[in-house]
Amino acid sequence: xxxxxxxxxxxxxxxxxxGQVTEIVDGDTVMLDSGLVVRLIGTQAPKLPLGxxxxxxxxxxxxxxxxxSALALGKTARLGYGGEEKDRYGRALAHLFVDxxxxxxxxxxxxxxxxxxxxxxxxxxxxxxxQLFSGETQARAQRLGIWADPYYSVQAADRPDALLARVGDxxxxxxxxxxxxxxxxxxxxNFGRFWKEDFTAVIEAPALRLFERDGLDPLALEGALVxxxxxxxxxxxxxxEVTHPEQIEVMARP
Length: 254
Known about the structure:
The chain is α+β, with helices and mostly antiparallel strands. About 20% of the residues lie in helices and about 35% in strands.
């Protein structure tokens, strides 16, 4: 069973009674006795095939599912909504709070703090990410769960060849921004001198509006040591599209 760790409160949510957790689909998805499927927003657990042909389970996927089962299966729960409330599959996008003997437990924080899920955010669902990042940072520092497995290692921005081997994967990429520049409606954060080959983070216009709303200027990241998280694709070298500010963690300012 995953250990119960002290967690910070996730506040400012629309709270509703959820009933009982009757099934654990994987490390970030549960089913309630009402039939509602809940995707634990803000986290990404190691993925299971779940009937997808040719899909290989990610390392520690079964362990993550088992940990969430030990935490939540058969327990009464509440849901906390802080943004978009349903996805295209009809799943609820919510924070899950489980009623246990020791009190109410925030499932997302537990999974992240025990190294059995990563922080995974969306532009339309950004509540409580600071707390989740804190839990993830502690788990990574202690090499708990996934953070002891090379599959989940933080990638180096100055190794574009290694990143090209990760195209299609969700990765954390760390490095220093060599050049931050605006071109047309988007901002490019370049991590190497050869923009057609080196790693780049791209911030499109809708994301730039979120940066502006939060009082953040991505151009000020030039020279900063940052960690970018997102799905790696390939367009003039490996890149990640940044859709909201929380995908960029600033580790050291220039």
